[in-house]
Amino acid sequence: MTTLASYACHPAASRGRLHPEEGGEVRGPRDMFQRDRDRIIHSIAFRRLRHKTQVFVSPDGDHFRVRLTHSLEVAQIGRTTARTLGLNEDLTEALCLAHDIGHPPFGHAGEDALEAAMEAHGGFDHNAHTLRTLMLLESPYPRFRGLNLSWEMLEGLAKHNGPIRNPGGAMRELDALFPLDLTSHASLEAQLAAISDDIAYDNHDIDDGLRAGLLVLEQLLEVPFVARCWDRVRTRYPDVAQDRLLRELVREQIGVMANDLLETTRHNIADARVETVDDVRALGRTLVCFSPDLAAQERALKRFMYATLYHHPDQLAAADRARVIVTGLFRAYQDDPALMPAEWRDECALEEPTRSRHIADFIAGMTDRYAEKRHREIYGALALAD
Q: Could you give the CA distance from residue 201 to residue 156 in angstroms, rounded to a whole number?
């Protein structure tokens, strides 16, 4: 087992869980963060990610990524780099696996629709909804609501993209329940989970875009970072056909990003002279990051991906359809909560914003195909024909 650095999160020093657990943590020889990871893996919300959009809405092919496979790939990158940096790889893995659990159906298009619907009722944010799902909605235990995850796990999910100085209504409610020090920086494990997410989708979305025919290599080579990686791949394999090297290009890019991340983070940690995780939280800046040069290249790659893939006409049309479904479902349940299944209908309050938050919870938990099914049952098969 890797020896943890002093500035890593140590399970024995955890701030604990919201609810005491009778008999202690007795099921097997696992520490606090290993149990967090296992609770995520065994959750219904995690399983639902299998049928939630990553980039391609309700993909016809079996080879495109979905939220579940994306989360597994993020976890692989996070776990490996955590071990190299002397960080807690169990906590890092758990954060990576759980980071997208709060995404509604149809990815960011679904989130945009829910955010608009909830504008007058405290808003909707998938990051806050991840915590809401894990702290309140997913309830497999007999004595308390939620998965009762560790403070470090919840803090990392809340703040992995940085401090939260103006939390929305849902995040404020959760922070009041179990204060998470929202205005400080998160642990190095949480910072690593965030940038592992960037590395995964920056590169694997290229792989899916090529497979879907929405990207071609000639377009990609307009991006200097991609062109340099492609030159190295072609130099190593001069006798291999171009189409056999496309996935090698993706691997090369991941390797370049990961190595830069490791070198830069080691330098940042040494320069900051942090010795404990409390030092990390109090520092006031992110330590796990790319070098300035690679960060600029990564931003250029993101701009290219938005212009050519995420905003491709086919993708925009799919996003429009997704917004129609989510908006229509919210409106229908607002007008008549009896349209929801009994377990959701019976708990739907009359007062706002509790009523709308409850409806948003139901819709956000849907898979793509379940949302389409419910919309078809309410509005008919022809509602989306155009």
A: 20
